[in-house]
Design goal:
349 residues; alpha/beta; Rossmann fold; 2 domains; five-stranded parallel sheet; 5 strands; 49% helix; heparan sulfate 2-sulfotransferase activity
Length: 349
């Protein structure tokens, strides 16, 4: 009888010990989860992986850091750069930093500097951007109109761009064709030797300074539809605005290039980490400057302001400027903003 009682007591002790051990293990795991959650919610926001992703705490799943790294390494940015907007200065920074940052920069050189891609070339370009995995992460850049990836059933890249006050850009291009720039000073330009001022050109009503020739920033954002390239087309202006908001990751302005680079560094550090400091402390702040340029007189300026092409181009510029200021305000001024997930249901066992 005594032996049976001792056996029962021994079994009870064993069961209690096992139960307490299992309880202690579960308690330890729970504490580890809480510690991990706390660590994620207080991450260093200056770290390149400052997007906070809370895992579901399954042992078999990869860490959030590895997930973010894999996603960022598939990043593709397309910069369909508008001529004479400071794009050479910006791209020069990307080329200088790409080796250190371990990403690729590719120039899309279209035959004859044509801004319109044929249908088959649009498709080929989309296939390259989407399927050329060996080159990712990558920045593609070139002077071509917006290509709608969704139209071809392909995943969209991150589009970026810069635009400039329309008359400033137009005048800069006019003198660039005559005098070139300090980027390639020995290259003979199309209108070399022609010293006619922009004011004289406007007074004589020549085609190269006609307001219709200023129609460029709107169609670059509008895309490849026929109406996009009809000067002063209201539908084109509306489409350009829609694309800027819905299909562009970021559009900055030439006059605030440093802030444009700052927002990109804050939001896409995988490609642009260190770009702001490099821009401010190197000779890249204005890489391509037109050698000789005259400011138009008030008569010329008033003529353009009365033209519907200038009015629509300027409306688009003001729209882009307002949108950029909104994004900049909520990005550069909230560098330490974060978020995390909580109250996740059902609870994980």
């Amino acid at each position: 009888m005594l032996v049976q009682q001792n056996t029962k007591f021994f079994i009870i002790v064993i069961v209690l010990s096992v139960t307490l051990t299992l309880f202690q293990i579960q308690l330890t795991k729970l504490q580890e989860k809480l510690d991990k959650l706390g660590a994620y919610s207080h991450q260093d926001l200056d770290n390149p992986t400052n997007f906070i992703l809370i895992e579901e705490f399954h042992e078999s799943k990869p860490s959030s850091r590895s997930i973010l790294r894999r996603l960022s390494d598939n990043t593709v940015v397309v910069y369909n750069r508008v001529p004479k907007t400071g794009s050479t200065s910006f791209v020069g920074i990307a080329y200088d930093l790409c080796k250190r940052g371990q990403y690729h920069v590719l120039h899309v050189n279209v035959t004859g500097n044509n801004h319109i891609l044929s249908l088959n070339n649009q498709l080929q370009f989309i296939q390259n951007v989407t399927e050329w995995t060996e080159i990712k992460p990558a920045l593609y850049h070139g002077h071509f109109a917006f290509v709608d990836f969704a139209k071809f059933g392909a995943p969209k890249p991150l589009y970026i761009n810069l635009i400039r006050k329309p008359l400033d850009r137009f005048v800069s291009y006019y003198y660039f064709l005559r005098y070139g720039d300090n980027f390639r000073p020995h290259l003979i330009r199309k209108k070399a030797g022609n010293t006619m001022s922009f004011d004289e050109c406007v007074e004589k009503q020549l085609s190269e300074c006609d307001p219709s020739a200023m129609w460029l920033q709107v169609p670059f954002f509008c895309g490849h539809a026929a109406n996009c390239w009809k000067p002063a087309n209201k539908w084109a202006l509306t489409e350009a605005k829609k694309n800027l908001v819905n299909n562009y990751f970021l559009v900055g302005v030439t006059e605030e290039l440093d802030d444009f680079i700052g927002v990109l560094e804050q939001s896409l550090p995988r490609l642009f980490k260190g770009a702001s400091d490099y821009f401010l402390n190197s000779n890249k702040s204005h890489l391509r400057r037109t050698v000789q340029k005259e400011t138009p007189n008030s008569v010329t300026i008033n003529k353009f302001k009365q033209n519907p092409v200038w009015q629509m181009e300027n409306e688009f510029y003001e729209f882009a400027l307002d949108n950029f200021h909104f994004i900049k305000r909520h990005t550069l001024r909230n560098k330490h903003q974060s978020f995390f997930y909580e109250k996740i249901r059902p609870r994980q066992s």
